[in-house]
Amino acid sequence: MLSKKEILDVLKSKDIPKDLLEEAFKVRKFYSGYYVYLRALTEITNICRKSCFYCGIRKENASLKRYYLKFDLINKLFTNIKKLGYSSIALQGGEIFSEKHYFFLYKLIKLAKDKFNYEITISFGELPKDVLEKLYFLGAKRYLLRFEIISPKRYYLFHYKDKFHNYENRIKTLVLLKKIGYQVGTGNLIGLPFTFIKDLYKDILFIKNFKPDMVGIGPYIPQKNTPLFNYLTKGINIFSEKERFLLTLKLIAIFRILLKTSNIVASTALITLGTKFYPLEKVLNLAFKCGANVIMPIFTPSENKRLYSLYEDKYFSEHEKFYFAVKNSDFIPVLDRYGNPLSYYIRNQKSCKL
Ligand code: SF4
C-alpha cells in the first residue's frame, strides 16, 4: 500500500520510479497475467448538451458537423465486430436528454445483448435514474463516467455552473450507477491547466475510496475550438506533453497497486500523446507494465470518427493495428473472454464469468 508521501514523491519524480513499475507489474501479473482485453468502441454520436471548456464536441462548438449513427449501420458494425471475435463492446456518445435518444439506446442495447450476446460498456453522461436502470435491465452492465477533477472549486474552472454542469449531480450519478449494479468505470483528466500535483493526489484518493471496477484516465490534450485552448495561447503554465504522458503512466501504476483487481484502460488519449515520443508497441508495453489491461480499438466509421474530436490529433486505433501491436508489445490480446474485473465479483460475491 502506498502512503501519501510515497504517492506525492512518485508524482513529483521526473521519471517512472523503478520500484513503482516493478510493484505494479508484479500485481498486474498476479491478477491479470499478460492478458489485455480488447473492447470494440463505437462512438454513436458527437451531439452533446454540455459545453465542458476542454472538449472539442462541446455544444458551443458551432464549427463542428454533428452526426448520429443510424441503427442499420450500427447493426452492420456489430456484425463485423462479432466476426472478428469480440465478446465485449463499448458504446459512447455525448450527453443527450431526449426520449427519442433513450429509446434508441434501449433498442441498441437489446440488439447488442439479444442478437450478439455482447458484454456492453456504455458511456452517455449523467442520464436520468430510470433510463440508467432500464439500460442496465436490458443488458448494459458496465458504465463509464469520468469525474475529470474531484475538487469542486477546480471543477467549476472548466465547467459552467448551471443545471447542465453540476458537480454534485456527477458524483451522485457515480454512486447511483454502483447502486444499480453497474460495473462502474471512472477517472480523471490529467494535467489540466490551473491544476497541480496536490489536485492529482485528491483525484487519486477519491478513486482509491470509490473503488471503481474500471479506471479510465487520460492526459489533457488541447483542442483548438475550446475556451481552454485560448488560455493556452496566452502562455499560461501547463505540464509539458511528456510530463502529462508520464503522469498518466504513473497514475496507472498507482491505481494498479492500490486497487489491484480493477480493470484499467490504456486510453486513446494516452496513446495519442505517447506515440509522439515512442512507437506504439513501446507505449503499450509501458502502459501494460504499469498495470493497464484493457484497450479499446475504435470501430466508428472513418467519416464520423474524425468528427468525434474531443482533442487534437486523436489516435485512430484500428482493430488490426492494435491487435498486433499488443502482441508485439509482449502481451496477449484477448477478444473472446469478457474480462470482467475480479473487483466486481468480490464486491458482489458472485460466481466468476471471466
Ligand atoms: S466532455 Fe463529455 S459531457 Fe463534456 S462536452 Fe464533451 S462529450 Fe459533452
Structure description:
- Helix 5 (129-138) runs parallel beside helix 7.
- The protein is of the alpha/beta class.
- Helix content is 45%, strand content 12%.
- The strands form three sheets. The protein has a seven-stranded parallel β-sheet with strand order 2-3-4-5-6-8-10.
- 45% of the residues are buried.
- Bound molecules: iron/sulfur cluster.
- The site of iron/sulfur cluster (SF4) has 10 residues, from loops.
- Iron/sulfur cluster binds at residues 48, 50-52, 55, 57-58, 94-95, 125.
Concise structural overview:
With 354 residues, the protein is an alpha/beta fold. It has helices at residues 4-12, 18-32, 71-83, 99-115, 129-138, 152-155, 167-180, 197-210, 227-233, 241-259, 268-274, 280-290, 302-305, 319-328, 342-348, and strands at residues 35-38, 40-45, 88-93, 119-123, 140-144, 183-186, 189-190, 214-215, 218-219, 263-264, 294-295, 332-334. It is globular and about 50 Å long.
List the helices and strands and how they pair.
Layout: H1 4-12, H2 18-32, E1 35-38, E2 40-45, H3 71-83, E3 88-93, H4 99-115, E4 119-123, H5 129-138, E5 140-144, H6 152-155, H7 167-180, E6 183-186, E7 189-190, H8 197-210, E8 214-215, E9 218-219, H9 227-233, H10 241-259, E10 263-264, H11 268-274, H12 280-290, E11 294-295, H13 302-305, H14 319-328, E12 332-334, H15 342-348
Parallel strand pairs: 1-11, 1-12, 2-3, 3-4, 4-5, 5-6, 6-8, 7-9, 8-10
Bound molecules: iron/sulfur cluster.
